[in-house]
Design brief:
This is NAD-P-binding protein. By secondary structure, this protein is an alpha/beta fold. About 40% of the residues lie in helices and about 15% in strands. It has 6 helices and 7 strands, in the order βαβαβαβαβαβαβ. The protein has a 7-stranded parallel beta sheet with strand order 3-2-1-4-5-6-7, with helices on both faces. α1 packs across α6 and α3 packs parallel to α4. It is globular, with a radius of gyration of 16 Å. The model has no long low-confidence stretch (mean pLDDT about 95).
């Protein structure tokens, strides 16, 4: 659980892990900018009631360059001169396919949503992060994106996108050593993406994620970390 007042931009906040991140963060005096594709239909997000926190809901579709660029002004307006402590790139899509059986356009779409969108958002939010106290980017990844973790032939596009996300994390950390940038594996969680067979429920995963993120130090930048604090191999 968060125990210090910080500014957060949570992407993909209308359901699943993103919604639970917002729920736990607004239990204390944080400023949380919750970004989702369709705020008007995000009933669970709209129903959240902050306890001593600020909650601002904005529109952001990470598959759309226009939407990403338009969201920056909304973030700037909420911050009102303050810096951004945490950019939490949580939005993502899963696809079940193999390395030879896929749609060209759908492969491009998953890369756009899972890698290119988060990369652009981080670039555009850089001035806000530079003014923040924590200067932290969390790229939500998966052990399926690690070359040393063998999940067989399934989910080829998703795995490729998360491997690319991991490399993005590495390059962001090397390019800007003044920031803290990590890839974070949330575990296999009971969400729309993870399915009902997953062993973890969102509150457990998110509590672990926040414990990891709030405990980050400069020497952690560029790492691939699991929600329980275990450092993963690439």
């Amino acid at each position: 659980m968060a125990n210090t007042a910080s500014t957060w931009l949570i992407v993909g906040a209308s359901r699943g892990l993103g919604l639970e991140l917002v729920r736990q963060l607004i239990a204390t005096s944080n400023t949380v900018i919750a970004a989702c594709r369709n705020p008007s239909s995000a009933s669970q997000l709209q129903a959240l009631e902050p306890t001593g926190a600020e909650l601002h809901i904005i529109q952001l579709d990470v598959s759309s360059e226009e939407s990403i660029r338009a969201s920056v002004g909304k973030v700037e307006a909420v911050l009102n001169g303050r810096g951004l402590d945490y950019l939490y790139n949580n939005a993502g899509i899963l696809a079940q396919d193999d390395a030879f059986n896929f749609s060209y356009s759908e492969f491009l779409a998953i890369l756009q949503t899972n890698v290119v969108g988060p990369a652009l958002l981080a670039s555009l939010c850089l001035p806000f992060l530079e003014k923040g106290n924590k200067k932290t980017i969390v790229n939500v990844s998966s052990s399926m994106g690690g070359l040393t973790h063998d999940y067989g032939a399934s989910a080829a596009r998703y795995s490729a996108s998360k491997a690319a996300m991991n490399m993005l994390t590495h390059k962001q950390a090397k390019t800007r050593p003044d920031l803290i940038v990590i890839s974070l594996c949330p575990g296999w969680v009971q969400t729309d993406l993870g399915g009902v067979s997953a062993p973890l429920e969102p509150p457990e995963s998110v509590a672990g994620q926040l414990k990891v993120v709030l405990g980050l130090k400069k020497e952690d930048t560029g790492k691939f970390i699991r929600y329980d604090g275990q450092e993963l191999t690439w």
